[in-house]
Amino acid sequence: MKKMTPFITGLFLVMGISQSLAQDAKEIVRKADDKFNGEKSSISKMEMTIVRPNWQRTVEFKNWTRGNDYALTLITAPAREKGQTFLKRENEMWHWMPSINRLIKLPPSMMSEGWMGSDYTNDDILKESSIVEDYEHKIIGEESIDSHPCYKIELMPKPDAAVVWGKIIKWITKEGYMQMKSEYYDEDDFLIKTDLGSDVKLMDGRELPSRMEIIPADEENKKTIVVLKEITFNEEIPDGFFSQQNMKRIH
Question: Global pTM?
Answer without folding.
Answer: 0.84
